Amino acid sequence: MFFFKVTACVKEELREQQSVMHESMVNALRSGVATPGPGQQMMASQQRTLMQDVKAALDKRQYNAAFRLALTATDLDAVLYVCEKCPLKEVFGRPDVLEMAVLFSMVQQLGVDIGSRTRLKVEYLEESLFAIGGRFEDLDHNSFKYLRRVLQDLVKLLSKFMQAHPEHEMYRNIRMIAQNAELQLRQIDAMHGGASLKQEATHD
């Protein structure tokens, strides 16, 4: 009897964690609905407060918190600042440093205007997609649905850029990112039924 009570408690806790993670992803994705860009409409005081909070998180090596602050504000300058200041090996050296919601939003926002600060964006897109692919088992059906949308948008943005800039010095890297995103889309469709996800997406 005790075993069954413990099992029920564990299942309930997992459901709660899954619900929190899902809500976090939804909020992160919604925060990126508006196309971010340099100098997006933020008051100077808000910008100063944001950067102070970001720098404070970085000083404490709270990389997830720093990215979450910048991504939630949809301030691409702030996001790129965090990318520059974070040691890539520490950020992606362990799978638990960045939340999935942060990774989703990072892919969504860094895919915009890939022609600017290309090398930095490429580095983080490569690592983010690799990190997401390694944690598929952490995602539920709804999370896969959101991820599918993010990856589709990324492929469209990168394909458009490659068509316009076939001689770009980072062309091969960008093509590999697009191919990785397409591979993950195929994996999602195979694992969770592409037809049902597509049908659900049309009703969102």
TrEMBL record:
Keyword Repeat: yes
Stated name of the protein: Enhancer of mRNA-decapping protein 4
PANTHER family: ENHANCER OF MRNA-DECAPPING PROTEIN 4
Highest taxon of the lineage: Eukaryota
Biological process according to GO: deadenylation-independent decapping of nuclear-transcribed mRNA
InterPro entries for the chain: EDC4-like, EDC4_C, EDC4_C_sf
Cytoplasm keyword on record: yes
Source organism of the structure: Hypsibius exemplaris
Any Pfam family: EDC4_C
Compartment(s) of residence: Cytoplasm
Keywords from the UniProt entry: Cytoplasm, Repeat, WD repeat
Coiled-coil zones: none
One GO cellular component term noted in the UniProt record for this chain: P-body
Residues passing through the membrane, by range: none
Domain annotation Enhancer of mRNA-decapping protein 4 C-terminal: ranges: 54-177
